[in-house]
Write a structure and sequence with these properties.
Blueprint: H1 4-14, H2 22-27, E1 34-39, E2 42-43, E3 47-48, H3 56-66, E4 70-74, H4 84-93, E5 98-101, H5 107-115, E6 120-124, H6 130-142, E7 146-151, H7 157-160, E8 168-172, H8 183-191, E9 199-202, H9 208-214, E10 221-224, H10 226-230, H11 234-250
């Protein structure tokens, strides 16, 4: 494995700005209602999402122009037809904070995330044990990467809350085994979480009505992917969602 110093040096060749935990700072406060706009080429539940005309650079620029707080880039190849090169291309195309979304379970994936320009990595608690969450989370933080740690079941939070480094918690309304989305299930989880934990709602956000469901719990933000990728006008759709969330944040 490359040394921390080597990885940091390589990382600085890619970044246009010093990282300084920009992703965490963007979502550390509850009630800010930011939006993480996601680029993915396909999904297991919806099939192909990006056509040959949908260049990553153009989608990223639409998201940035529409007011996204951060970006999510899906790099998994097996299920989403993504690539680690997509992360590097996104980094070259924007200065927004970028989340690398993948099934991360190995230290080398954390290291390559730093080298290829991620600001944050996703850890899915349901596919990791408590020691793996702690080990990978600590390594990420040592490499100046922020953490979005995802749960679907409330019980998984027991693994997450043992982390000794800052993190943003994600509640995924999608069951990754069945692919079924349930906002009711996610709301029950959210209701039982501490109100001071930075919180992102993931999956199934298609319209302002979905955002409104979670508004009473003042999440830090929403991760929106499939509905944006399927839209015939991503800029317009995201602009409307951003305006709605900004109005919510004002109270």
């Amino acid at each position: 494995m490359l040394s921390f110093e080597t990885i940091r040096n390589e990382k600085q060749k890619i970044y246009k700005k010093e990282p300084s935990h920009r992703f965490y700072k963007a979502f550390e406060k509850r009630g800010t209602f930011g939006i993480i706009a996601e680029f993915k080429r396909r999904s297991p539940s919806q099939g192909e999402l990006a056509s040959s005309q949908d260049s990553l650079e153009n989608v990223v620029r639409d998201y940035e122009s529409a007011g996204a707080t951060a970006l999510s880039i899906l790099t998994d190849e097996s299920y989403f037809n993504g690539s680690i090169d997509d992360l590097a291309e996104a980094r070259r195309s924007t200065e927004l904070p970028i989340l690398r979304k993948d099934f991360i379970c190995l230290p080398k994936q954390i290291c390559e995330s730093a080298v290829y320009g991620a600001d944050c990595v996703l850890l899915i608690s349901e596919m990791l044990d408590g020691s793996e969450v702690e080990k990978l989370g600590t390594l990420a933080y040592e490499l100046d990467l922020d953490l979005l740690v995802e749960i679907h079941e409330l019980e998984s939070y027991e693994k997450v809350k043992k982390l000794k480094v800052p993190y943003v918690l994600g509640v995924n309304s999608r069951n990754l085994r069945t692919l079924h989305i349930s906002h009711q299930h996610a709301l029950e989880v959210v209701k039982n979480l501490p109100t001071d934990v930075p919180l992102i709602i993931e999956s199934g956000i298609e319209a302002v009505q979905d955002i409104q469901l979670y508004a009473p719990y003042r999440p830090s933000g929403f991760l929106i992917g499939t509905s944006l990728m399927k839209s015939t006008n991503r800029y317009e759709k995201l602009s409307q969602l951003v305006q709605f969330t900004r109005d919510l944040a004002k109270g």
